[in-house]
Amino acid sequence: MCSIIRLEQLNQAYGKEMVLKNVQLQINKGEIYGLLGPSGSGKTTLVKTLIGALTPRNGLVQVDGVQMPNLKKLNDIGYMAQADALYDELTANENLTFFAKLYQMQGSYRNKRITEVLEQVDLLQDKDKRVENFSGGMKRRLSLGIALLHEPKILILDEPTVGIDPVLRNRIWDSFYKLKKSGVTVVITTHVMDEAEKCDRLGLLRNGSILASGTPNSLKEQAGVETIEEAFLQLGSDQS
After folding, report:
1. Which runs of consecutive H residues, i.e. helices, occur in the chain?
2. pTM given for the model
3. How would CATH label the architecture of 3-238?
4. What parts of the chain have a pLDDT lower than 70?
């Protein structure tokens, strides 16, 4: 398969503290790739480096053949951060309109996409409600809608389903599978084991290092265990 994201000998630090250590990773076009690890393992730093929000201390970060950071390449990426970047005094519809204008989306296409993503994240009936009156789960869903709005080639989501009920979570995963079928690459950070099982491939991240990368089944076989959680613990102990 053709890789669309490539990391080579990536190191990242905050001051003197090394947060990512010699990360080697390739993510293929049109796959759902999960970054699995506990809080503090470096998942958020890794995705921020991927989108160019952070410049690597050293090493290579390429997205679709372009070295990051690159402002123009951001047009091909949809990003959903762990913290919701929303305007509370605006409605859901007004938030989406604001971000659509940032992406220079015009006229009927802009209106069509706003309606489509509101339906996709189950907020159409709440489109005229101010975000300050939203629950935490509703804010997460709106943030996901904003990431999807401009139909990006690459979708990078930092723990996207935190605070979302199980029924809607399944619907959102169905939408990820549809995006994958259309050729979109989806990168998800998670610490939830059942979500990890739904990914095509996984990178197990611990203390800023990739312990292993592969399909959920191959990682379980490699560790000689039956669950991803056991694989994570086993592969981590092997390298400690």
Report:
1. 43-50, 92-102, 107-120, 136-148, 166-181, 193-196, 216-223, 228-238
2. 0.91
3. 3-Layer(aba) Sandwich (3.40)
4. 1, 238-240
